């Protein structure tokens, strides 16, 4: 492990040097295995925020209060520590720079991580496919990759829109509220553009958003790809 | 050779022989789906088994519910590493549904509403090992957990227990279904940790 960076009050990003890492496509995940001194192990999957061929990869992990692995990664892990990882994994929830359909991204909280890899892949590949990101967060300080997103949103090919659920910036025109049909409809492409969508976040969030998206009849159901975490 | 994670102690140590390798216990019920939850109207719902001769055995919702119902007490194991012990389901055994089906094919492709597929040997559905489940913990199965009906094959990783099940097609070869084409194991035995391939 090379470096960590605070992303939000409960999350940080982790840079890893992985000798022999074969590179990864945007949206893939990996398994992290921790081993205690008595041999006890715990494995969890994390989305990869970075993309491309290098051997340095980036994860971003939100601490789950009752979690076993995420509190260690967020609070304990130090530069120089070693981690066992396996991956990259998954070939479904992925975006390729050669894809041509307009892309609607919708993230809830730390669900931004695999979508960030897609945004980075879009940027570094020079793709001019239109990307819309609708990003639901509790408050402005809960935004992952805030500075980078601000810079990337200068691109004419990426639009970033925030939904604040608990606390909005002082001058924000909309009172804090959970994501609505109106917010999704306002950010969406038209059906004629044949968009595809990637939705990632907590289970309840993804269920709500995906149901709204099907109801809008803009997306064919099989073009909405989802990734959920947590129970209900 | 495992790398010791400095400062990692883990949460629990009791050996649980009911937990397959690499799994952890959860009390809630996480959701793993590739896309939106399909809306299936019970008035239109059917389940069918299609054989290699083209013969189709089909049941509508009333017909399925008129068949003998079994209560199933089982542990379930998701490839994403959570396990849930002692769950209770009810539904119709695949043995009941296959009673009048004549096939020599050894493999099954499972089709779901919403387009999802998964593959398995027919033997894994026979002899009291698999059901079409319509209730969970005494309640009708929630749509996000596969309602109105899902396949229940609890001795395999839970992605094989296809949500929103619509039908089975008998096939000659064990060709990969949806998740299997996307990196998950062709068979998926949790006790052998057959997660990926």
How is this structure best described in words?
The complex is a heterodimer of chains A (232) and B (197). Chain A is of the alpha/beta class. Chain A folds into two domains: 3-89, Elongation Factor Tu (Ef-tu), domain 3; 103-229, Nucleotide-binding domain of ferredoxin-NADP reductase (FNR) module (Rossmann fold). Chain A is 21% helix and 31% strand. Chain A is built from five helices and eleven strands, in the order E-E-E-E-E-H-E-E-H-E-H-E-H-E-H-E. The longest helix of chain A is centred in the middle third of the chain and has 14 residues, at 112-125. Chain A starts with a strand and ends with a strand. The mean pLDDT of chain A is 93. Chain B has a single domain (46-192), classed as Alpha-Beta Complex (Sulfite Oxidase, Chain A, domain 2), CATH 3.90.420. Chain B has helices at 61-66, 94-97, 178-181, and strands spanning 24-25, 46-50, 56-60, 70-77, 82-93, 107-112, 117-121, 131-136, 139-140, 150-152, 165-171. Chain B starts with 23 loop residues before the first strand and ends in a 16-residue tail after the last helix. The relative contact order of chain B is 0.20. At the A-B interface, strand 3, strand 4, helix 5 and strand 11 of A face loops of B. Chain A: This is Ferredoxin-NADP reductase. Chain A: Residues 1-95 form the FAD-binding FR-type domain.
What kind of sheet is the major sheet of chain B? 6 strands, mixed
Count of strand segments of chain B: 11
User: Helix/strand-derived class of chain A?
Assistant: alpha/beta
Q: Roughly how many Å is the radius of gyration of chain B?
A: 17 Å
Count of helical stretches of chain B: 3
* Largest β sheet strand count, sense and barrel closure of chain A: 5 strands, parallel
Amount of beta strand of chain A: 25-35%
Taken from the alpha-carbon principal axes, the silhouette of chain A is globular
Q: Say which CATH homologous superfamily of the largest domain in chain A is assigned.
A: Nucleotide-binding domain of ferredoxin-NADP reductase (FNR) module
């Amino acid at each position: 492990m090379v470096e960590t960076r605070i992303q939000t009050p409960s999350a940080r990003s982790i840079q890893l040097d992985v000798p022999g890492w074969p590179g990864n496509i945007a949206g893939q995940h990996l398994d992290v295995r921790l081993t205690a001194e008595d041999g006890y192990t715990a494995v969890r999957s994390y989305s990869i925020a970075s993309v491309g061929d290098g051997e340095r990869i980036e994860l971003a992990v939100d601490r789950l209060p009752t979690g076993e692995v995420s509190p260690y990664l967020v609070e304990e892990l130090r530069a120089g520590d070693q981690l066992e990882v396996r991956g990259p994994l998954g070939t479904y929830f992925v975006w390729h720079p050669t894809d041509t359909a307009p892309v609607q991204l919708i993230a809830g909280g730390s669900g931004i991580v695999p979508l960030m890899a897609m945004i980075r892949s879009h940027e570094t590949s020079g793709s001019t496919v239109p990307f819309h990101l609708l990003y639901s967060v509790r408050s402005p300080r809960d935004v992952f990759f805030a500075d980078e997103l601000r810079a990337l949103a200068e691109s004419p090919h990426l639009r970033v829109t925030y939904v604040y659920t608990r606390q909005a910036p002082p001058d924000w025109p909309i009172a804090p509220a959970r994501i609505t049909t109106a917010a999704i409809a306002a950010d969406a492409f038209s059906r004629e553009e044949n968009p595809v969508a990637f939705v990632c976040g907590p289970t309840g969030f993804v269920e709500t958003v995906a149901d709204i998206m099907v109801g809008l009849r803009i997306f064919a159901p099989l073009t909405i790809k989802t990734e959920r975490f947590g129970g209900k | 050779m495992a790398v010791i994670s400095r400062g990692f102690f883990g949460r629990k140590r009791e050996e649980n022989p009911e937990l397959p390798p690499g799994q952890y216990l959860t009390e809630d019920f996480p959701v793993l789906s590739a896309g939106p939850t399909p809306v299936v109207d019970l008035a239109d719902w059917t389940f069918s088994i299609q054989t290699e001769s083209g013969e189709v055995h089909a049941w509508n919702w009333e017909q399925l519910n008129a068949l003998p119902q079994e209560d199933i007490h089982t542990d379930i194991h998701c490839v994403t590493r959570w396990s849930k012990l002692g769950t209770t389901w009810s539904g119709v055994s695949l043995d009941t549904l296959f009673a009048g089906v004549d096939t020599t094919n050894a493999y099954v492709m499972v089709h779901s509403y919403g387009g999802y597929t998964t593959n398995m040997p027919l033997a894994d559905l026979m002899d009291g090992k698999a059901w079409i489940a319509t209730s969970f913990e005494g309640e009708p199965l929630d749509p996000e957990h596969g309602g109105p009906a899902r396949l229940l094959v609890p001795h395999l990783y839970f992605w094989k227990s296809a949500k929103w099940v619509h039908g089975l097609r008998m096939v000659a070869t064990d060709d990969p279904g949806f998740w299997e084409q996307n990196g998950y194991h062709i068979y998926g035995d949790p006790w052998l940790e057959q997660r990926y391939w």
